[in-house]
Amino acid sequence: MAETQKTEGTVATPVWDIPVRFFHWALVLLIAFSWLSSEMDWMEWHMYSGYTVLTLVLFRVIWGFVGSSHARFSDFIYSPGAVIAYIRTLPSRTAAKFAGHNPLGGISVVLLLLCILVQTGTGLFSNDDILTEGPLFKQVTKELSDWLTTIHKYNFNVLLGLIGVHVGAVLYYLIYKSENLIKPMFTGRKHLPAGAAPATMRGVGLAIVLLAFCAASVWALINS
Fold first, then answer.
1. What does the pLDDT look like over 102-143, one tens digit per residue?
2. Where does residue 8 fall: left (phi above 0), alpha (psi -120 to 50 degrees), or beta otherwise?
3. Spatial separation of the C-alpha atoms in residues 221 and 167, rounded to whole Å
4. What is the C-alpha separation between 40 and 161, in angstroms, rounded?
């Protein structure tokens, strides 16, 4: 049901589906817990957290092809020309309206997903030379495991940098451009120009099936 029209000719329009919103906030919590569990040396819990993160990211990649309209990569991967044109609008205090991710936001999503895949993938083969070994440690040589462990260690700093840029961009939009990008990730709705078409939503049932498939795949991988 459409909500009451706001001033400036905008209405609250469905944009983000439940699976995207669940993925986003679950990932925030799990990455924070992964960092904490590593710092506290709760390595068993750290590994469980990593498996869950891997499951979620695999799901998000699949959902990027079969999910709701604004969840799909085709919706937020723009041409270089579109990205450059968008960058030129950044100094303006008026936010350019995009139903889904804007061109730079789309790049941010792709980079974060790739970085998290590297983080979780290398973690499967890592070791700490003491007690903890990833579930696939014995599938590679010790030298290769050590190399992947080094990547796992330093890639987390890259991930923190990407997260910092992401948070900074959200705050920039909130403070400088007066556009709240946080609320829609809770409510699923954005205030868009009147007449904007709502997103084509896919069923939650499909998302549950895909998430279960990803969880089973990760379980099979770590027990191979």
1. 999 999 999 999 999 999 999 999 998 888 999 999 999 999
2. left
3. 33
4. 22
